[in-house]
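Revision sheet: structure tokens.
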Amino acid sequence: MKILQTISVKQVLTETSRDKLRDQYLQNKLLLEKETGQLQFEQKKLEKTGKYQVSEVKSKFDKEIRQRAERIQELEFQLAQLDMLPLGSELKEKEVQAIIEVQPGDAWDNGNLKHEIIIRDGIIVEIR
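Predicted:
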């Protein structure tokens, strides 16, 4: 019988991967800051039209702006943590699905169903 299993993909932290992650975090932060500015502009625009109640417009836009501000804080925290991590640390990157073959009589708890893929600079170096 074949079953689907979730497998963790972990990345070994190297200077190259650290720089790549830092760039990715900074790009995401910049994008969120641009979105926040655009939302503030749209909010002022809608408030001036007078078609909607100012309190409704303000509450809806404030919620969206607050969500982006929280995400920016998370990214800043991740950037700070990234600089503190030693090289060689394993970071969980994502999870993928795999098809695993199981047979009657296989031990369920023997670890055969726990797999991890370890990558370093985009290359698979180990499958555990």
